[in-house]
Specification:
The protein has 283 residues and is an alpha/beta fold. The protein is 27% helix and 27% strand. Helix 7 runs parallel beside helix 8 and helix 8 runs parallel beside helix 9. It is globular and about 55 Å long. Belongs to the FdhD family.
């Protein structure tokens, strides 16, 4: 069986503007198509960085509502393949799940196509794209002096990012603000799914935990975090307006870390307003 972590970067030759040949080389992050099947039924094609794919598969299935816990997973098989008409490599992953969850999956199966920049592709209604989620319980806040260190801490823990750049990172923090693991992927949604899967695989309850992400925060990341009962999302780029509104309704603490300013808290579990719709100026 193919291992769950393959080469994540590759040397690529390039030329300067007036050069006649590709003579210089640099490391680029690997991006590969991953076909995901559930009990041998095709479900999605995601563009991924091929490391920690067991964590990704479980985190993806959990955040998609396909499983409720890692105990619903019976087996994971991963195989290397080739896209014949392009001559490029691909991966095929099959997730064997329990009969109960498989029956639920077949009832709710819908066309789904994933990409590095989209997490709501394939949803065929607004209700499906924005489902009802259970609000999170109140959680403890990280102190400001720790928040101010997280930008540098994230960069320091990025292995692939330091080699190649052009990759998203998600770093899981303990309730005290200590780094647990940093996982990277070409897709920001995939990076968070890897963290969720890692937590499930290691029996880590994400209440009072935080995840720091290199990307902006959008709606689908809020949904994934809330489903996983993660208490805090911290981003290096600004969130969208809908992400802020959903975070406030659902009790998720949402923080932006600007480069040259104090941390900006857009939503706090201590100020959750479950009736809020779009009032983004509300304290």
């Amino acid at each position: 069986m193919t291992p769950f972590s393959l080469t994540s970067t590759r040397h690529c030759y390039f030329a300067r503007r007036d050069a006649l040949r590709y003579e210089e080389q640099t490391q680029l992050v690997e991006e590969i198509p991953l076909a995901i099947s559930i009990n041998q039924i095709t479900h999605a094609v995601m563009m991924v960085t091929p490391n920690h794919l067991d964590d990704f598969a479980i985190g993806f299935a959990f955040s998609e509502g396909i499983i409720n816990s890692k105990q619903d997973v019976r087996d994971i098989q991963l195989e290397e393949t080739t896209i014949a008409h392009l001559g490029i490599p691909g991966l095929a992953l099959n997730l064997d799940i329990s009969p109960r969850q498989f029956a639920h999956f077949k009832q709710h199966k819908h066309a789904h196509l994933g990409a590095t920049g989209c997490g709501l592709c394939g949803k065929d209604s607004l209700e499906q794209a924005l489902p009802i989620l259970k609000p999170l319980p109140a959680s403890q806040a990280l102190p400001t002096h720790i928040l101010k260190t997280l930008r540098e801490m994230l960069f320091a823990h990025q292995d692939l990012g330091q080699k190649s750049g052009a990759i998203h990172a998600a770093m899981l923090l303990s309730p005290e603000g200590h780094p647990i693991i940093c996982l990277e992927d070409i897709g920001r949604h995939n990076a968070l799914d890897k963290i969720i899967g890692y937590a499930l695989n290691h029996n880590i309850s994400l209440h009072n935990h935080s995840v720091v992400m290199s990307s902006r925060c959008s709606t689908e990341l809020i949904q994934k975090a809330v489903r996983a009962t993660l208490s805090t999302l911290i981003h290096l780029a600004s969130p969208s307006t809908l992400a802020v509104s959903l975070a406030r309704q659902l009790g998720l603490t949402l923080i932006h870390l600007p480069k040259k300013d104090e941390p900006r808290i857009f939503a706090s579990s201590f100020h959750a307003d479950h009736s809020e719709k779009q009032n983004l100026s509300k304290n």
